[in-house]
Amino acid sequence: MTRRFPLSALILLAGLSACATPVPDRVVEARTPTEHYKATAEARPEEIRLAVHAQGLSTTQATALAQFAATWANAEGGQITLWSPVGGPDAQAAFRTGEGARTFLIAQGVPADRIAIQGYDAQGDVQASLRVGYMRYEAVVPKCGQAWQNISHSRSNDVQQNFGCAVTANLAAQIANPADLVRPREMGPADASRRLTVLEKYRKGEVVSSAKDAQAQGVISNAIK
Questions:
Q1: CA-to-CA distance for 138 and 56, rounded, in angstroms?
Q2: Which of 115, 183, 187, 199 is the most exposed, fewest CB within 10 Å of its CB?
């Protein structure tokens, strides 16, 4: 004999089964931050060419090389390579230009161990130049607004592809050194003098913190607004 249940009991069982239904994974993923766009940078060569002179660097070349060294320092570039032509211009003139460029870069603050000199085949070109270059990073700016969809018709609550694109594009356009997107910066030297000062005060039982600045103290106004 078939047993019949009251209508109210059937409704209660249906409600309990609905509460026990697990939440689909796609809903959970839709609430997580989008990863469609990430700020990245690509390594690209930065290079200038200097004509070979028998007397070494010219005034114009020295000015260009100084700007090159400043750009290298701002970008925290790595090794600078001087490619000297072989089998083209006069060998002595190529040597003087290359050595003059190396000495000038060192005078501009580039460490000597960051400069390398290599030869390249000029293939008989007497006008072949001295090439000076290093690898720098350039931020990759994404193109936004290419795949917008009608978000009002989204029934699955999925993340839209363009969400976060504008933030990433602004970050890539404003960052001072795109290499920061790829690797951390090198640590600077420790301040040994400050460390000795703090240790000396600590041994004497004195306060080791910096003196308070009166201008940095805030006062709450009692004025009636």
A1: 32
A2: 187
Are 85 and 123 spatial neighbours (Cβ–Cβ below 8 Å)? no
Say which residues have a Cβ less than 8 Å from residue 109's Cβ, sequence separation at least 6: 69, 73
pLDDT in tens, 93-144: 999 999 999 999 999 999 999 999 999 999 888 889 999 999 888 888 888 8
Closest CA to 149 of 139, 157, 140, 160: 160
- How many Å apart are CA 212 and CA 225, to the nearest integer? 31
CA 18 to chain centroid: 49
Could you tell me the pTM of the whole model? 0.56
Nearest to 53 by CA among 144, 126, 162: 126
Q: What is the pLDDT of residues 61-86, one digit of tens each?
A: 999 999 999 989 888 788 999 999 99
